[in-house]
Amino acid sequence: MNKETGHKRRISKIIKEDLNKKMVLLAGPRQCGKTTLAKNLLEKTTGEYYNWDRNSHRKSILKDDLNHQVKLWVFDEIHKYKSWRNWLKGNFDVYGKEKQILVTGSAKLDLYHRAGDSLQGRYYLHRLHPFTLGELSKSANPELESIPLIKNTAKPCDNKFLLDLLKLGGFPEPLFSSSEKEARRWRNSYGSRLIREDIRDLEQINNIDKMELLYEHLPETIGSTLSINSLREDLEVNHQTVKRWLEIFEKNYICFRIPPLAGNLIKAVKKEQKLYFWDWSINQNNEAKAFENLIALHLLRLCHWSLDVLGEKLELRYFRDTVHHEVDFILLKDKKPWIAIEVKLSESELDPNLKYLLERTHIPYAFQLHLHGNSYRRVGEINQSKITIMPAADFLINLP
User: Which end of the chain is less enclosed by CB atoms within 10 A, N or C?
Assistant: First the structure.
């Protein structure tokens, strides 16, 4: 892997354009590259960077002692300031026509703003993900329309590239270290720093130690339906506490949950969710879980890109019915199933569960992706669904 500085984040150009229209909120996991992206933008214009975690910067914010000689203001981690919503609203209303304002944070800024005065109408929200295979590749095609025509849109991708990404993760520091040892060292302290620094600053947590135990236990649930009751019993805390901690993890970009696909014809489960991490490499002892998690995050990135950049809503689901037929992922477009995706480690024939779902629900496109192997073939249509079995790398390289 090349150094991070050699990879321009694909979202940078979009943010630069949006800053001329409104304030931009850039959210995403801790250490995924938000500050680097912001400072790269600062290098191309006159600007000032303010980080709430630095005493001198915090004093400047509290005293409204900002540099008015520059064009761009960047406020990093300002959501830790109790009155940040009103403060931003006031500054944007006064200076919004003459200043560009970029706000970055390692929490879901759109959720944290809802509890107070709304910034609605004053900002665009963008979410920065860890690096994806498509973003790292110069041959990738970021247009959503390319997905159904995936065979014709990109050259085959070297599978070693995907295997490295799977082992190292998509976060810049471990990824560009090109070292599994350094990636492990980074990962060993990442969760603890998130909980004991970021979450501690935002939430009232009475039992940090047990919250860390929950964090350590959750990777075991990847790929399975999530049982809060089971977690509650393991941790010896009540149901509401586990539920709240999971919501806090989600708000701080530690993990995310995927609901099931609903439908009367398929007798699908309605409430059981599946959980994945923003750092897919957290589960290094189980290649299948890590690979499924990697696919999940790439698809979530697709959904976020579609909404944040194109204004089109895609939804990520999975399928599981009452007799345990299961398909890993379903993308909804206009609230209707659009693409079904089944994930395999090795090449195989069409999965019976995917076939079962396609026979009962019209889904225009279906892909069965494998990590190991070069097989690429079209399968005869089922219920007018175009079905492709292919290497995962050749699919992922087409995503934004």
Answer: N
Q: Which residues contact 228 (CB under 8 A, 6 or more apart)?
A: 239, 242, 243, 246
pLDDT in tens, 70-129: 999 999 999 889 889 889 999 999 999 999 999 999 887 866 544 445 688 899 999 999
Side chain identity, residue 73 = W
User: Amino acid identity, residue 79?
Assistant: H
Q: What is the pLDDT of residue 6?
A: 47
Q: Residue 53 corresponds to which amino acid?
A: D
- C-alpha of 280 from chain center: 10
Q: Report how far residue 40's alpha carbon sits from residue 161's, in angstroms, rounded to the nearest whole number.
A: 26
Which helix (H) or strand (E) element contains residue 231?
helix 228-235
Question: What are the Cα distances from residue 344, in Å, to 10, 25, 168, 221, 312?
Answer: 28, 36, 20, 18, 29
Hey, CA dihedral for 181, 276, 252, 166, is it positive or negative? positive
**Single-letter amino acid code for the residue at 276:** Y
| 377-382 sheet: strands from edge to edge | 314-320, 326-333, 336-346, 365-372, 385-391, 377-382
Q: What's the rounded Cα separation, in Å, for the pair 151 and 216?
A: 39
User: Measured between alpha carbons, how far is 276 from 258 in angstroms, rounded to an integer?
Assistant: 8
pLDDT at 365: 94
Sequence-distant (≥ 6) Cβ neighbours of residue 102 within 8 angstroms: 15, 19, 23, 24, 26, 38, 41, 72, 73, 74, 75
Q: What is the pTM assigned to this prediction?
A: 0.93
| DSSP β-ladder status, 274-277 and 255-258 | antiparallel
SS3 call for 139: coil
CATH code of the domain occupying 4-127: 3.40.50.300
* Span(s) in the chain for CATH 3.40.50.300: 4-127
